[in-house]
Amino acid sequence: MNEQITDPKFEFLKGDKVLWMVIILISIFSIFPVYSASSNLEYIVNNGTTTSHIVKHMFFLLLGLGLMRMVGMVKYEHIGKISMALLIVMCGLLVLTMFTGQTIDGASASRWLKIPGTPFSFQPSSFAFLMLIIYLCRYLTKKIARERTVGENVGFIFGPILLVFLLVAKDNGSTALMILMVSVIVLVIGQLNWKYIAGFISTSVVAIILFLLIALNTNMIGGNRVHTWMSRIETFTSSKAKTADVDDESVKAKNYQVMQAKAAIVHGGVTGMGPGKSALKQMLPQSASDFIFAIIVEEYGLLGAGLLISLYLIMIVRIVMIASKMPAFFGSLLVLSIGVMIFIQLAVNIAVAVNLIPVTGQPLPLISYGGTSMLVTYIQLGLVLSVSSRIQIYDEEGIGKKQSVAEINDIA
């Protein structure tokens, strides 16, 4: 019997051990910048205390790690089989959010649903995003043996993508765009015919342009946030401008978040100011969530930020390695898709902090303060660990790299 199975010392860490270690290290590290930056919520937003926020963050850390372990124990094939049902439930919750959703900490969009009988709320969009990707991975796997009809592609692939996109776009444009982007990447990796992918992209672009024109020039789409999106894009372009208009006070006011984030990064220098010694956390809105990377650079410097990014890169590399070793197409596609989701979210958060793209409101994976995104990331990683734990089993059962189409579909 393999030592990995018989050694009780590693029984809890089921799956890829390196990935486990990286996740635990990032999770532990997250406590320090969140504790430091959450003082902004206490003294500026006047919401709770620093102690209560860090206790809440640690609660979600432990809950997330436990949830990740539980998901890792479940065969990923079983989760794939119920993904359609879960996606339907999430779409129902998205519809409910449109009518009964709440705002949190001064947010301008009603993205949260309150859990009855508890003080907690969650964002259905994050769970819907994950369920959509799992569903697409399984559907592409089950139908890989033959060419799909146009009706099948529209009804079972493009339809669900556009439905989730439209339900999310009204209140969360950045997440909606990420849903489209990741979905297209999954379709490419999942070997969907290029002519259908090109047609879907063209149709989506036309639909988005029409949506923007209608929302900006009419009142047909009530409660949309298109004007907010356009303002953020204008603010971003003005921050890049080299004209005298940049000195205008109204422009400075709109660029306030980005200016404070850039100041925090510059203030940190190479070695940083030290844990908890950020001078700009009280002046940077969303310093504990969307802009926490700027606080990390200020307190831990480029060296600390570089080390953190290195841990993320190790995570991504391990995910790719797991996907390459997995003989089952569904498992490999699922792991790669999750890796794409995590990488894009990571890249977007850092790019916003260093002013490479407009403000989007995407959290830093496993670090930013907030329960929903963190739990979804742990579930994603739990699925990756579930797949990694199955690799050895497949090897023992003689399922090698060269699978037939029948074997691939049978596993899914």
Descriptive overview:
Helix 4 runs parallel beside helix 16 and helix 9 runs antiparallel to helix 15. A two-stranded antiparallel ribbon has the order 1-2. The chain has 17 helices and two strands. The N terminus is likely disordered. By secondary structure, it is mainly α. A hairpin with a 6-residue loop joins strand 1 and strand 2. Helix content is about 70%, strand content about 0%. It is globular and about 60 Å long.
Give me a quick take on this structure.
By secondary structure, the chain is mainly alpha-helical. It is built from 17 helices and two strands. Strands 1-2 form a two-stranded antiparallel ribbon.
List the helices and strands and how they pair.
Blueprint: H1 3-6, H2 17-37, H3 39-43, H4 50-73, H5 76-81, H6 83-100, E1 113-114, E2 121-122, H7 124-142, H8 150-169, H9 173-189, H10 194-217, H11 226-240, H12 249-254, H13 256-268, H14 292-325, H15 329-353, H16 371-396, H17 405-411
Antiparallel strand pairs: 1-2
Helix pairs in contact: 2-4, 2-14, 4-16, 6-7, 6-8, 7-8, 7-9, 7-15, 7-16, 8-9, 9-15, 13-14, 14-15, 14-16, 15-16
